[in-house]
Write a structure and sequence with these properties.
The structure is a homodimer of 304-residue chains. The first copy, chain A, is of the alpha/beta class and 304 residues long. Chain A has 2 domains: 57 residues, no CATH class; 179 residues, Aromatic compound dioxygenase (Protocatechuate 3,4-Dioxygenase, subunit A, Sandwich), CATH 2.60.130.10. The first copy, chain A, has 8 helices and 12 strands. In chain A, the strands form 3 sheets. In chain A, strands 1, 4, 10, 11 and 12 form a 5-stranded mixed β-sheet that branches.
């Protein structure tokens, strides 16, 4: 392929258009790209774009509608809204990019999308603290887990960054002034045995923003806009590959139709009801409460 | 394909992500699209987008760079600038859409892109008039032609809409206040024999706008930003298919590397030097002048 393109690039009539060879002709025009990787990416992008246009026989009106959609998507973006990432999310592209970069790796905990709400740093908190500063506005919940490597050895002192929506489906940044800043976020440090635990509330499923072009697309395709309920977890430590994932709530709606395709079977966990006044008191929780355990397996770098 | 998707759409775990089946899973989510054509287009778009990501092994950083590029492209657009159309142009997509919608059709004159400068109506002018109201600031030129159908019969009274850049490579709308409004534009009406003629100046090659993301892309790929010199021609009449095309100047640079891939061999014409004081005087042109003849063949609608 690459050699064909180079030949076409030096052919005298490479710049004159022929529908049958359209992608080749455009690819030939990229022969002067000094960044070889950029050229590889653009060549593939051009070929797939041209194949798409030919395959569906895109009309001029449909092309113009596409131009309008892309323009409106760009113009919907601002400091707190990224409509192109949302478009990537609802077309499954973000999950695919995650999968390409973090393929299934034996016992290692599976990854999923980071999402758009990791925009502020989580406040450092002590093991056992609550991340709910708004005062238990939802079902009280204990989260426990242990970070180990692929040989089962604990990762002492691993960083556990968590963030989540509240019991009404909103993140703190969506309710400025209504809830404390950095509510339902926390940065914990695992103990010597890799263990972590903290208190929170059970998160609710929630809709992605639908007041832009992506919302229009979801509506036109008869799709709902909801994400299944989840707690975001990012685990990092020196010498291990950072893991970005979710804990999904097993009785949430939308586990089978998460609008960003973020659900993986292995990430769904029971948030089990616990009726145990002694244990509740130990953790400073009301009784009854719910409990989810989320063991995390990370891979150590082979070359430090 | 359609049936496979419908089956997947009703499968219980369609919304859970699997990298191997990513495009299928997203396509299944489109099962509720009431507009069958929209579903066909989106299904193909998703499949090609996912194949592209897998084929190049897009990294998270490259994905993020793509998101930034698309966002900036959308945000560069305003009432007089359409950066997404420009992107479509320089990737050969606009020419491909034109080709898909106006395939080669025997003796019919070939089409090419309309371009972004047909934004104001051309003023009606009498046959033989000049479209250069700025006072012959370039090489004087006579344009002649005849509109016929595929059987060689004249198309009496055909509308001939022309617009072009000046001898410095600018359209009127790019020099507001400097040149008369609607300079180098004209709407002519062919005579009973389908003939048309008018005076102008020889257009110059010119660059597309490079102060936006598309300019950055052209630079990164080692491409120049120039279009070969041309006169835009749009021919219409009741009962015939409208033709949008260019007359390319045969001694222009960039005929082999037009940055929007607009050149077709059949549209290149000699702008022949003429040294003939009598003929010059007949047309109200200085001597010597240049002359291009552009016969136009259009197709009559079979169903009026």
């Amino acid at each position: 392929m690459t050699e064909d393109i180079q030949e076409a690039g030096t052919a005298p009539s490479s710049g004159r258009f022929e529908a049958e060879r359209s992608a080749e002709i455009v690819a030939a025009s990229l022969a002067g790209t000094t960044d070889e990787r950029l050229r590889e990416i653009l060549t593939s992008l051009v070929r797939h774009t041209h194949e798409f246009v030919k395959e569906v026989g895109l009309t001029v009106e449909e092309w113009a509608a596409g131009i309008r959609f892309l323009t409106e998507t760009g113009q919907k973006c601002d400091d707190t809204r990224q409509e192109f990432i949302l478009l990537s999310d609802v077309l499954g592209v973000s999950m695919l990019v995650d999968a390409v970069n973090h393929p299934a790796d034996g016992p290692v905990t599976e990854s999923t999308v980071e999402g758009p709400f990791h925009m502020v740093d989580s406040p450092p908190r002590a093991l056992g603290d609550t991340i709910d500063e708004a005062g238990l506005s939802g079902e009280p919940c204990l989260v426990t887990g242990r970070v180990t490597d692929t040989d089962g050895r604990p990762v002492a002192g691993a960083g556990i960054d968590v963030w989540q929506a509240d019991a009404e489906g909103f993140y703190d940044v969506q309710r400025p002034g209504e809830v404390p800043e950095r509510n339902l976020r926390g940065l914990f440090t695992a103990d010597e045995d890799g263990r972590f635990w903290f208190r929170t509330i059970v998160p609710r499923y929630y809709p992605v923003p639908v007041d832009g072009p992506v919302g229009t697309l979801l509506k036109a395709t008869g799709r709902h806009s909801y994400r299944a309920a989840h707690i975001h977890v990012e685990v990092s430590a020196p010498g291990v590959r950072t893991l970005t994932t979710h804990i999904f709530v097993d009785d949430s709606p939308y586990l089978d139709s998460d609008t960003v395709f973020g659900v993986k079977e292995s990430l769904i966990r029971a948030f089990a009801p616990v009726d145990d006044p002694v244990r509740a008191a130990e953790h400073g929780l009301p009784n009854p409460f719910r409990h989810v355990d989320f063991p995390v397996v990370v891979r150590r770098d082979t070359q430090p």
